[in-house]
Automatic annotation (TrEMBL):
Name of the featured protein: Conserved oligomeric Golgi complex subunit 4
UniProt xrefs under InterPro entries: COG4, COG4_C, COG4_M, COG4_N
Subcellular location: Golgi apparatus membrane
Keyword Protein transport: yes
Compositionally skewed regions (Basic and acidic residues) per UniProt: 443-456
Protein family membership: Belongs to the COG4 family.
Main location: Golgi
Keywords from the named record: Golgi apparatus, Membrane, Protein transport, Transport
Length: 840
């Protein structure tokens, strides 16, 4: 027995070891997984639906199960598992053979079979449990389907009961309304009668379809009788409300008028009520508009406001309409709904168009607006032909201001109407939010949103037609179109007149014309801003920029283009001949046509051009601030238009800056180049192959640089009080460039030894120190090329010059290799062959 027990323990230990080795290896046991996979697949595919109430339970749901695809997938998986099984069996056989060899003849197969038998027994239990679970799930599924069917049946029954109760309630309401409306009409309690009719009109239409099917013997209890009574009462009450409303309008009984106006919506006559109330308000508007028109035709009540007589008349009209809207808006919102506000405003706008048209026509006639516009249009097309019919620009000033004010008042009125309609839209949105949408599915919600978007788009279209495309809007656009043309003429003529009257004070560097011109441009643009029309402002901005860019700029640049009188006997002889020609041909005096006058004109024009840049920037800054105040309500598109129009002033600044820089260059060429050339030529008279004694003497007294700097400083000092600071800075920069150019020219005509090169470096440092002190560090880059020339000359050996040249950064190397070789050739103490073979 002990032997058998030990043998069993040995077998068990071997079986455990073999099983552990097998399950930890890559070999998978041959387990029939078809059932498990099938269960997993069923878990994935089959779901038990949750029970829920349906909105429309008239029909049972059509429950159909299609397992075609599931069976196909199961068959595929069975084939795959069968192939896997064959492969696993083969692997097990190979593993067993290998284990038998490794164990030295032990009965491995028998032990393995015993282990598989035990595993198979366990899998049989698992399979039994799985089948039991499947049977339970099947039972539960059947119970769930049964319960779901019963719930659907109950749901349908509940819905029909609710419908039946609703029909009964409607029938009782119909009878109550029929009895109540009859009594209310006899007592002339029209409010109560209207409420009964309103309730009757809101009943389900299915109730009325029953009137021919259900009928009692008693006429008082008859559904058909009640229906006919209410229809007759509705027609009768409608006639009474209309009649009493018209009587109240004739007698101006506001209380009765409002009383019957409130009853129209109760009998579903919203549009009828709005139309009648709109006619009443239009009549009120017509009366006070006639009164204002008579006052306007008589010249107004204040002589000080005759220049804005028609603007005041339009303002009174707009204020009167706005007052009526503000007073009656709560009444419309409460009884008709916010969506009817647009319809009422449309009625009032028609009357507004008629009354404003009368005022505008009278304005055009009295101010001769159209006549002047046509004359100006002819003149702008052909100035030479219609010179005799030219209109004085001052005559247009007051009229143009009145036109912009008229448009401003109209714009304010339109903005008021838009605010009222936007407020009505907000109220409508709030009302829609209050509606419970929890029962709506996603499709119904999407349809609801699309309907809201479509309604909003339609309202925007109606609002655009109401405001911008109304008769008032069309007439205002016509007035603005003519205004832009006349404003262009006013701007052009006023600028031309300011340029003709140019004067220069003795203590001023610029002429008085600058202030006048920019005042005119600023005035015209700001006047267009007062019109509250972005397109109008952009048009006037374009006209102002064009006037500055063409007329004004050409006038200023003419003085620069004429040039600055040069220095020297040749130039003086030429200027004398030119002066004589001007005296003879143009009748000018010698003082007006001489070189001194030309110099003065050049300097003044140069200062005017430079100072105009500051004026343009100041103008733009002021306009930007005005736009922020006046046009805070505009859209991004309109804001982009304004920014684009203002961008023209940046282009103008660049153009004027280039012209001023060009003028400074001409001044430097005419006034400084001849003198600097003469002074630089003196450098050739000095010996540059110095001895030790001469070098020491030059260190004590500079023979060239001191005189050169003194002469240059005197010349610059004569121009500093004549130029505006920016022009003087540019002149200093150009003079520095010219000084370097002249010094480079004369240096290449000299030869140097080592001490002469040292002296050249000393002179260069003295000169650059002076120029930097008067011009600032910003001009040091102008010395860079000449500095490299001096540095190459001032070397001890040719190799040092090559090293210096190679060390220069490529972007800062301003000398080519040939120029460097030529520069080094100025040293007479270097071998020509060394210089020739130097590797630059």
């Amino acid at each position: 027995m002990a032997v058998n027990g030990e043998s069993r323990k040995s077998d068990d230990a071997f079986d455990s070891k073999l099983t552990d080795q097998f399950f930890h290896s890559k070999v998978t046991p041959a387990v029939d997984m078809d059932f498990v996979n099938g269960c997993n697949l069923l878990k994935k595919k089959v779901e038990i639906p949750k029970g829920k109430l349906r909105a429309k339970p008239e029909k049972l749901p059509n429950l159909k199960f299609d397992f075609t695809n599931a069976l196909k997938e199961l068959r595929k998986e069975i084939d795959l598992k069968r192939k896997e099984e064959e492969g696993i069996v083969k692997e097990i056989g190979e593993a067993l053979e290998k284990a038998s060899i490794d164990s030295g003849g032990m009965d491995v197969i028998r032990s393995f079979n015993l282990a598989v038998t035990r595993l198979n027994n366990q899998m049989t239990l698992v399979e039994s449990d799985a089948k039991q679970l499947a049977n339970n799930l099947k039972i539960i599924s059947g119970l769930a389907d049964n319960i779901s069917g019963k719930v659907c049946t109950l749901d349908i029954a509940k819905g029909r009961v609710v419908e039946c109760l609703q029909r009964v309630s409607d029938l009782m309401d119909l009878k109550t309304c029929a009895e109540g409306v009859k009594a209310a009409m006899e007592q002339e309690d029209y409010e109560l009668a209207a409420q009964h009719i309103h309730k009757f009109l809101t009943l389900d239409s299915a109730v009325f379809q029953m009137r021919d099917q259900v009928d009692a013997k008693d006429a008082g209890q008859s559904l058909k009788y009640s229906y006919e009574v209410l229809l007759e009462a509705t027609a009768k009450l409608k006639t009474i409300i209309e009649t009493r409303f018209e009587e109240a309008v004739k007698t101006d009984d506001v209380a009765s008028l409002q009383r019957f106006f409130k009853l129209f919506p109760l009998i579903n006559e919203h549009l009828n009520g709005i139309n009648r109330f709109g006619r009443y308000l239009c009549e009120k508007i017509r009366k006070f508009a006639d009164s204002n028109f008579k006052v306007m035709m008589a010249g107004g009540t204040d002589d000080k406001r005759r220049n804005v007589l028609y603007t005041d008349s339009l303002t009174l009209l707009f204020e009167g309409i706005a007052r009526e809207i503000q007073v009656h808006e709560p009444l419309i919102d409460s009884f008709y709904g916010p969506d009817k506000m647009l319809s009422l405003i449309g009625k009032l706008q028609t009357e507004c168009d008629k009354e404003s048209e009368r005022i505008i026509e009278e304005f055009i006639k009295d101010r001769q607006y159209e006549t002047k516009a046509k004359l100006i249009e002819k003149f702008l097309r052909n100035p030479e032909k219609y010179t005799s019919e030219k209109i004085d620009a001052l005559e247009l000033d007051v009229m143009l201001s009145e036109v912009t004010l008229m448009h401003t008042r109209a714009k304010l009125y339109w903005r008021y109407l838009r605010r009222r309609i936007d407020a009505a839209d907000l109220k409508m949105d709030e009302q829609r939010k209050d509606v419970d949408k929890e029962d709506m599915d996603d499709i119904e919600k999407q349809k609801q949103e699309e309907l809201k978007a479509r309604d909003r788009k339609e309202r925007e279209r109606k609002l655009d037609n109401l405001l911008n495309r109304s008769l008032l809007g069309t007439r205002m656009q016509e007035l603005l179109g003519r205004y832009i043309l006349m404003e262009q003429y006013y701007l052009k003529e006023s600028v031309a007149k300011a340029m003709m009257m140019e004067q220069k004070d003795a203590d001023s560097l610029t002429s008085s014309m600058l202030d006048d011109v920019f005042f005119i441009v600023r005035k015209c643009i700001r006047r267009s801003i007062s019109s509250s029309s972005v397109d109008c402002v952009c048009a006037v901005l374009n006209n102002g920029a064009t006037a500055l860019e063409i007329d004004f700029f050409n006038f200023l640049y003419a003085g620069i283009k004429a040039g600055y009188s040069s220095i020297g006997w040749t130039a003086e002889a030429y200027q004398t001949a030119q002066t004589a020609y001007n005296v003879i041909q143009h009748g000018k005096t010698v003082a007006d046509a001489g070189p001194e006058k030309q110099k003065e004109v050049f300097i003044t024009s140069l200062n005017n051009v430079r100072f105009s840049i500051d004026c343009i920037r100041t103008l733009k800054k002021g306009l930007v601030e005005s736009f922020e105040k006046q046009f805070s309500w505009i859209s991004e598109l309109e804001n982009g238009k304004l920014e684009s129009a203002l961008g023209q002033f940046d282009d103008l600044c660049r153009k004027f800056d280039n012209a001023a820089n060009n003028g400074v260059e001409k001044l430097c060429t005419a006034a400084f180049r001849p003198k600097l050339k003469t002074e630089a030529e003196l450098y050739l008279d000095i010996n540059h192959t110095l001895s030790e004694t001469e070098f020491a003497e030059f260190e004590a007294v500079e023979p060239f640089v001191d005189n050169f700097i003194a002469s240059l400083d005197k010349l610059l000092a004569s121009f500093e009080p004549l130029l505006v600071p920016r022009n003087y800075e540019e002149l200093l920069a150009d003079v520095c460039t010219e000084v370097m150019r002249q010094m480079e020219r004369v240096v290449f005509k000299c030869t140097f030894n080592r001490l002469g090169a040292l002296q050249l470096d000393r002179e260069f440092r003295s000169l650059t120190y002076y120029l930097t002190n008067i011009s600032g560090w910003s001009v040091r880059e102008k010395f860079l090329r000449y500095s490299q020339i001096v540095s190459i000359i001032n070397v001890d050996t040719v190799a040092e010059a090559v090293d210096f040249y190679q060390q220069l950064q490529r972007h800062n190397r301003l000398l080519s290799s040939e120029e460097a070789r030529k520069t080094l050739g100025l040293r007479n103490d270097f071998s020509t062959d060394q210089i020739k073979h130097a590797n630059f």
